[in-house]
User: What shape does this take?
Amino acid sequence: MTRERFLELAEAYGGSTARWPAGEREAAAALMAAAPDFAREALADADRLDAVLDAWAPLSVPRGMREAVLAAAPTARSRWNLRTWLLGAGVGAGLAGACAAGLVAGVSLSANLSSATDAPEALSAAMIGYDDLPETSEGA
Assistant: This one.
């Protein structure tokens, strides 16, 4: 077992090797015999952490405070009811109607403008006639 592995086990399982995995205890005992000062220091650090963790306790909250907080908490709203569904459906139907009206307006406008596709012929006729116009002097 390496010193790094020994430190990892001490941090993970604490200063008592009895809590360490059974497969690691024999190798840990061999390292403790080979480097007693290192092992003693590592286990002492882990024991101090264990003592701090054992001394920790959650804070107790006075019963009156707990009840006051729960009483002031907002109540849960129902997730679904018929009124909210109908309201949402009405808004959706209104938007769908507006889209349909826009589509109808666009189609009818484009149908009226489609007769302007003869514009190139009208433009050609106008240009031909332009050559026949008399010349005028500017400023006269």
Summary: The chain is about 70% helix and 0% strand. Residues 100 and 108 are 12 Å apart (CA to CA).
